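Weekly structure sync, notes
Attendees: PL (lead), two postdocs, one rotation student
Agenda item 3: pending single-chain targets
PL asked that the sequence for the first pending target be pasted directly into the notes so everyone works from the same version. It is reproduced below exactly as submitted, 265 residues in total.
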Amino acid sequence: MTLLPNTTAGTVVLASPVVELRQYTLKPGRREALIEVFDGKLVEGQEVTGMTIIGQFRDLDRPDMFIWLRGFDSMGTRKDSLTAFYGGPIWAAHRDAANATMIDSDDVLLLKPAWRGAAFDLSGAERAGLATGEMPIRNKPLPGIVVIRIHHLRPGSEANFANRFETEAAPMMAASGARLFAAFVSEHAENSFPRLPLRASENVFVSVTGFDSAEAHTRHEAALAGSPAWQVFLQGSQQDLRQPTETLRLSPTSRSLLGRWPMSA
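Predicted structure, written out during the meeting:
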């Protein structure tokens, strides 16, 4: 199943078989300060070590949350890249400013593609450049929204849930206006960089979708709620779920890669 159409001629680039979903709780009113540091100073500094900053977002429902995704080619390259970045001069120069905005940065899920081809297709995506003085364009999120849903699963049910999602849920979501960017399950490999904690005991399925607007997402949810086939999928999934599903409605920052494709089919 193709999740995101390749927007350029040539080979599709499926990014990052290892992905971190990071949710940061910030001090009240400090999100824009972190975005300024992150987009202006930390994106290229991380990517030069070999990782990919897939997307960074304002949470539309929680004003003091900053959500981002970064990817790696393997657990080994994750260790090497994080060691290089967090031991390097760019983080040393800007860590105090970044850390001063945060209450908690330990809410991190380590993920892998839920099926072959379920990773992000970043072919054709180009990150916005920096304005004069190497500062990002402030207060100008990209159009459209990204929705991340975190399904908390019972141990051992990831494969069954992923198969049902791919074959049953994904086609219905696409028919009601969702653009499915990627889908993941928990990566249970040992943390290759223990300096940064992970929610290692979690068993999750994570979908990442895009919509033209918050209103389009609302219409999508209403369409699914009225679909008998969708209700059958939900009822059949209950045996795999151990707690309610989390829904994150996110607005990409001006330098996010995820969200720079045309949102309309």
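Discussion points:
- Residues 158-175 form the longest helix (18 residues).
- Confidence is low (pLDDT under 50) at residues 1-12, 132-139.
Action: rotation student to compare against the earlier draft before next sync.
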